[in-house]
């Protein structure tokens, strides 16, 4: 029975069409294969991007509310700046999610080209730098503003509510991160940035209230500048961490965490690692592992064992997409062989 045939007799005039359809089905079956473990991990991480889309939608709603207050209630510079921050965050989160979706689809299509996933860290770095630029702009506006009249106290509700919304989204995202096997870098970046934004927004509300109570805008300037410096430090740290994903093997703490997981899996399998090298792309990583093995083992057995170890590492460690396992002789065996050779001479 040809693949794709139902088993019934061919009707007149359909034999040629049936054979061509079956041959097309065979070609398609040869091209389509079951997804690998690495591909399933990437696709699973792509499903998590919906949380970033939700954050982008919430940011767009808050930005629209701020613009409406500015146009319909009172032309407050503080409210306009907060709305601008939300608007930029909506664009940032949306571009981050779209970039990861594109990178993930291209990686699955080109199979082993996992380096494309570095675009996730590139977008996070870009977003952090944009955040720094926005904070510096807000600080400059607060310092060099010539207005002597403070913002109406009723409009302090907008930055105050904005801080609560940022906190709620941040708690929601961190709750999702704790339950996930894969630590999605883009999702973690969004949560960390919202955590910093809470300070900026609540500081803006506090600045408006203090300025109205005292009648002095200097308090508004002091609070905004102080919190802004802290935000520049926090966003700068995020930018540096994502830069390490791009220009090197990745941050040391992330690589050490994957290395400990590799050691644990090898210990469970009864093997001793001699050398472990981990390179992180951001969310995912790959590893080169040297495993000690008896020197008397045949080449075929060593190869099959290395493949089995590599598959176990990729299957059991969520962040690992690829593992290269090299079997090396046990050191004691090499020492005994060297001593025997020296004695014979």
TrEMBL record:
Gene Ontology molecular function, alphabetical: monoatomic cation transmembrane transporter activity
Subcellular location: Membrane
GO CC annotations, alphabetized: membrane
Keywords from the named record: Membrane, Transmembrane, Transmembrane helix
Keyword Phosphoprotein: no
Predominant cellular place of this UniProt entry's protein: membrane
Source organism, top-level taxon: Archaea
Region: Disordered, residue numbers: 1-26
Membrane topology type: Multi-pass membrane protein
Membrane-spanning ranges: 51-72, 84-103, 124-144, 156-174, 222-247
Residues covered by the Cation efflux protein transmembrane domain: 53-247
InterPro entries reported in the protein's UniProt record: Cation_efflux_TM, Cation_efflux_TMD_sf
Protein name: Cation efflux protein transmembrane domain-containing protein
Organism lineage string: Archaea, Thermoproteota, Thermoprotei, Desulfurococcales, Desulfurococcaceae
């Amino acid at each position: 029975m040809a693949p794709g045939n139902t088993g019934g007799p061919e009707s007149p005039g359909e034999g040629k069409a049936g054979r061509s359809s079956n041959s097309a089905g065979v070609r398609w079956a040869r091209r389509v294969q079951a997804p690998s473990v690495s591909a399933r991990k990437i696709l699973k991480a792509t499903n998590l991007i919906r949380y970033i889309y939700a954050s982008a939608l919430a940011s767009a709603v808050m930005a629209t509310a701020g613009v409406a207050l500015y146009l319909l209630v009172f032309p407050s510079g503080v409210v306009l700046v907060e709305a601008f921050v939300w608007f930029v965050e909506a664009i940032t989160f949306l571009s981050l999610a779209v970039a990861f979706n594109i990178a993930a689809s291209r990686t699955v299509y080109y199979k082993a080209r996992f380096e494309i996933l570095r675009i996730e860290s590139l977008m996070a770095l870009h977003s952090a730098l944009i955040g720094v630029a926005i904070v510096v702009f807000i600080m400059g506006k607060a310092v060099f503003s010539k207005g002597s009249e403070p913002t109406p106290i009723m409009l302090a509700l907008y930055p105050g509510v904005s801080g609560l919304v940022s906190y709620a989204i941040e708690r929601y995202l961190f709750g999702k991160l704790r339950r996930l096997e894969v630590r999605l870098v883009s999702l973690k970046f969004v949560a960390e940035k919202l955590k910093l934004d809470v300070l900026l927004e609540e500081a803006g509300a506090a600045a408006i209230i203090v300025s109205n109570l005292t009648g002095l805008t200097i308090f508004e300037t002091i609070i905004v500048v102080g919190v802004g410096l802290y935000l520049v430090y926090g966003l700068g740290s995020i930018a540096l961490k994502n830069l390490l994903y791009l220009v090197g093997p990745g941050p040391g703490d992330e690589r050490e965490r994957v290395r400990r997981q590799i050691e644990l899996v090898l210990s469970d399998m009864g093997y001793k690692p001699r050398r472990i090298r981990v390179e992180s792309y951001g969310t995912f990583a790959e590893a080169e592992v040297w495993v000690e093995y008896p020197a008397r083992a045949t080449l075929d057995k060593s190869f099959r064992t290395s493949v089995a170890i590599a598959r176990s590492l990729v299957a059991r460690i969520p962040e690992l997409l690829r593992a290269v396992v090299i079997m090396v002789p046990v050191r004691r065996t090499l020492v005994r062989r060297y001593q025997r050779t020296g004695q014979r001479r």
